[in-house]
């Protein structure tokens, strides 16, 4: 009935979709197994992609030939660039998506690929022989053979939904949990733990008083994620902002004795950076109100997502409290918020490729590794799909350094540090964030995708155009001289000293608050020259010029660090035989088997003295 597949992907969420399309685009014969074909790429939580650091990840996925950015551009209803008041390393694109169209677009793109096949059923076990994965076993007893398997089970592994004192088996509202795999993996020696996440109530937008809330429009003109020729958003739907208050908090507190979080019924640890409303009230008792973002779920639906009001309290308590929020006096609830608890596996059990150490050719990606967020999951799926294909072809693995991508930071953090709570990406986690900006992901990564054989020809044409444009813009800015009468008026308006004589445009641009747009407004020659280039190319060139000192410093630091990254260590090393290592270093190095000295240096508990011993041992 089934051929032997190159790659079987278990799970049709964001991670599974990117894993399937990555391997398929490289030439692998892929089977995507999901419990429900109707929920492929479903946005289980908020209908948005991107955000702080997450937007950078979506751009990186796109630069590497992934589809998350393309799907988002085709289905977004609002676009905003966050953190524009801060430096460009912090700028982060974010889009509200049409939930239904997002899932539909992903499914259509998967179905249109000749290398992707589908099977709708629950996977209950893995076929493992002599420590090597050979395929999967389904609930109907079918055995499907494969050279590699990627598990992207999301929140479905032994998932339990909590609403007040009720517990319901499920991986998502209205969908059953996945069983069987956890027990087998534990039997094989994997360490499993429980995690918790949650989602807020959904509300009928027709019953909300929008006039009493603060409106949050999108950027004009709207930006986009993909470096391909995706459509630009012409009209947008606004979001809105409102706040809780003391009365809301008092109502919510009446349900705390029935909250699964406070009664101990939930054993898993919840996300620190996206807490439930009851958790916020408990942890930040001094705050009289908390901000809520009211987000539309699509173009044609009246369903609304109440971002910031995640809860597992009894539904009647949620409803009573919600009606006291400004704008929600007459609100009707579609469904209450809930918490969900599920199994995950410590990511320290993985190699840098996301292949497991215990079972060859078995890969983990997404929330099974203890992460939260569509973007983090999609990035892992992409990397697992690429590396599964490369493993079959007996080619070198594809690994991104921390200095090359946020995806590299994400995976390096997971496999070296593990996690005790759902991991999410922030710009602060990246030590080289001035290099890892959202505007240069294509220049950083697209050539790597091309070298791997991923079809990115369209993107590469644009990358070359962008680099050529940046060089031309930089040359013009460095060489063009500006007289005082041309620019003094703008300088004075910005509180900057007037010129005493002609000065190169580059020197003036380095002043605080000065932008190329200012020169374009004041000097027709500059405007004429810059108008030949796309606005994105001008902006990216400007960042390179204004921050070239910082960029040079970070590149120097990266070169020093890369010397350690290039010193290889091998899985066969017995660290207990190396004299001079601390006992903690021996234990952790034998457990995690780092691929390089650089990776070893980032393992918790490994001291500089231990690294010195390793360098001596390998002859450095």
Shape: globular
Structural class: alpha+beta
| CATH level 3 topology of the domain at 199-337 | Elongation Factor Tu (Ef-tu), domain 3
Could you describe the largest sheet, including whether it forms a barrel?
9 strands, antiparallel
Task: Provide the CATH top-level class of the domain at 199-337.
Answer: Mainly Beta
Give me the secondary-structure topology:
Layout: E1 5-10, H1 14-25, E2 30-34, E3 48-50, H2 54-63, H3 68-75, E4 76-82, E5 92-97, H4 99-111, E6 116-120, E7 123-129, E8 132-138, E9 143-151, E10 160-163, E11 166-169, H5 181-187, E12 192-204, E13 214-216, E14 239-243, H6 246-253, H7 260-263, H8 277-283, E15 291-296, E16 303-310, H9 315-322, E17 333-335, E18 338-345, E19 362-364, H10 374-392, H11 406-417, H12 441-452, H13 457-479, E20 481-482, H14 484-493, E21 503-504, H15 505-509, H16 516-522, H17 524-530, H18 535-546, H19 548-565, H20 583-592, H21 597-601, H22 608-617
Parallel strand pairs: 1-2, 1-9, 2-6, 9-19
Antiparallel strand pairs: 3-5, 4-5, 7-8, 8-9, 10-11, 10-18, 12-16, 12-17, 12-18, 13-14, 14-15, 15-16, 20-21
């Amino acid at each position: 009935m089934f051929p032997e597949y190159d790659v079987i992907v278990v799970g049709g969420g964001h991670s599974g979709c990117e894993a399937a399309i990555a391997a398929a685009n490289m030439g692998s014969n892929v089977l995507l197994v999901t419990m429900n074909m109707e929920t492929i790429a479903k946005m289980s939580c908020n209908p948005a992609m991107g955000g702080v650091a997450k937007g950078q990840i979506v751009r990186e996925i796109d630069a590497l030939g992934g589809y998350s950015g393309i799907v988002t551009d085709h289905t977004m209803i609002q676009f905003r660039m966050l953190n524009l008041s801060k430096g460009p390393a912090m700028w982060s694109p974010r889009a509200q998506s049409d939930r239904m169209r997002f899932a539909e677009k992903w499914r259509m793109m998967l179905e249109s690929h000749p290398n992707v096949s589908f099977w709708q059923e629950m996977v209950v076990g893995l076929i493992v022989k002599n420590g090597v994965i050979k395929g999967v076993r389904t609930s109907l007893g079918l055995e499907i053979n494969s050279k590699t398997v990627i598990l992207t089970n999301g929140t479905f592994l032994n998932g339990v939904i909590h609403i007040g004192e009720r517990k319901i088996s499920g991986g998502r509202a209205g969908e059953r949990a996945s069983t069987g795999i956890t027990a087998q993996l534990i039997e094989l020696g994997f360490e499993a733990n429980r995690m918790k996440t949650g989602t807020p109530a959904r509300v009928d937008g027709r019953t909300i008083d929008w006039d009493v809330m603060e409106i949050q429009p999108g950027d004009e003109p709207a930006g986009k994620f993909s470096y391909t020729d995706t459509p630009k958003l012409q009209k947008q739907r606004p979001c809105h902002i409102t706040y809780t208050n003391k009365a809301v908090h008092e109502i919510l507190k009446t349900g705390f004795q029935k909250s699964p979080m406070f009664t101990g019924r939930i054993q898993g640890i919840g996300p620190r950076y996206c807490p439930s409303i009851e958790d916020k009230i408990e942890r930040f008792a001094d705050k009289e109100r908390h901000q809520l973002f009211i987000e539309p779920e699509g173009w044609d639906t009246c369903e609304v997502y109440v971002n910031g009001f995640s809860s597992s309290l009894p539904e009647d308590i949620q409803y009573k409290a919600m009606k006291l929020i400004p704008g929600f006096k007459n609100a009707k609830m579609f469904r209450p918020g809930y918490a969900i608890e599920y199994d995950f596996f410590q990511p320290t059990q993985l190699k840098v490729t996301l292949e497991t150490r215990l079972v060859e050719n078995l890969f983990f990606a997404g929330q099974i590794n203890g992460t939260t967020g569509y973007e983090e999951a999609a990035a892992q799926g992409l990397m697992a799909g690429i590396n599964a294909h490369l493993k079959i072809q007996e080619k070198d693995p594809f690994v991104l350094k921390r200095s090359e991508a946020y995806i590299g930071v994400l995976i390096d953090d997971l496999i070296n540090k593990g996690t005790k709570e759902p991991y999410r990406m922030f710009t602060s986690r990246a030590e080289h964030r001035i290099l890892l900006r959202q505007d240069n992901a294509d220049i950083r990564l697209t050539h790597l995708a091309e070298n791997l054989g991923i079809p990115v020809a369209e993107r590469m044409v644009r990358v070359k155009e962008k680099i050529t444009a940046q060089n031309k813009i930089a040359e013009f800015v460095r060489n063009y001289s500006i007289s005082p009468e041309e620019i003094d008026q703008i300088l004075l308006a910005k509180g900057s000293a007037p010129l005493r004589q002609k000065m190169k445009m580059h020197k003036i641009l380095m002043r605080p608050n000065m932008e190329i747009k200012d020169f374009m407004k004041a000097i027709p020659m500059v405007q004429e020259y810059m108008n030949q280039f796309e606005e994105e190319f001008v902006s990216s060139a400007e960042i390179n010029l204004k921050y070239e000192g910082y960029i040079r410093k970070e590149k120097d630091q990266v070169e020093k660090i890369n010397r350690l990254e290039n010193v290889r260590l091998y899985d066969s090393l017995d660290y207990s035989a190396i004299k001079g290592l601390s006992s903690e270093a021996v234990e952790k190095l034998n457990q995690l088997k780092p691929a390089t000295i650089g990776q070893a240096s980032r393992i918790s508990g490994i001291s500089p003295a231990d690294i010195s011993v390793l360098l001596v041992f390998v002859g450095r």
